[in-house]
Amino acid sequence: MLAARSTIGGVTTAAASSPATPPSVLGIAPVIPVVVLDDAADAVPLARALVAGGLPAIEVTLRTATAPEAIRAIADAVPEAVVGAGTVLTPEHVDTAVAAGARFLVSPGWTPRLLAAMRGSGLPFLPGVSTASEVVTLLDEGVTEMKFFPAQAAGGTAYLKSLASPLPRARFCPTGGIGLSSAPAYLALPNVDCVGGTWMLPADALRAKDWVRVEQLAREAASLA
């Protein structure tokens, strides 16, 4: 496979060309569902419901032992989904996510070692930040696309709005405490391209395997574009 120059996570890097790898995860949909799965058997019907509702970018967090299996199941059975791995904390997590078929990576924070691993994966990635200094440091590393986390606790829309003028190159996906009622205010900001959330995945619907309800809530979230 020929190597190509591409923009990954806001960084121009050499990576193997692949039609399955999006150049960025930020512009796929206004909302990225953040999924925690205890049963890998739920992965495919859940992903199909989210895609049908208009939310194809799906972050499966590496918080459970079944997460890699769930990512692989979605990658194999729901090709129209862009499935990624969240709660990526170590280079080993990066390796696990890539091997499972993840097409993007999301971390709540970052270290130089983790950043190097995410950059080297050839996948789009969103390293987490919550302060201006962290944003400036990533910009200095050539990274322009970031996760703002925990969004509500770290200052919410007011904080992100204050970063837009002095740091216009930084683009954000705020995640953490965001719901249907607060998402529009984030999406209206000039430096926000999408938000992450769980409100379209209520616990009672997941327990009941009510994929129709999940699809309806996903469609409501997708309409925020």
Architecture overview:
The protein is α/β, with parallel strands linked by helices. 36% of the residues lie in helices and 20% in strands. The chain contains nine helices and eleven strands. The strands form four sheets. The protein has a four-stranded parallel sheet with strand order 5-4-3-11. It has a three-stranded parallel sheet with strand order 8-9-10. The longest helix is centred in the C-terminal third of the chain and has 12 residues. The N and C termini lie far apart (36 Å). The N terminus is likely disordered.
> What order do the strands of the largest sheet run in, or round the barrel if closed?
5-4-3-11
Distance between the termini: 36 Å
Number of helices: 9
Rg value? 16 Å
Mean pLDDT: 92
Please tally the β strands and state the result: 11
* Order of SSEs: EEEHEHEHEHEEHEHEHEHH
Largest sheet: 4 strands, parallel
User: Which class of secondary structure composition applies to the elements?
Assistant: alpha/beta
What general outline do the C-alpha atoms trace? globular
Fraction of residues in β-strands: 15-25%
The helix content is 25-40%
- Uncertain segments of ≥5 residues (pLDDT<50)? 1-19
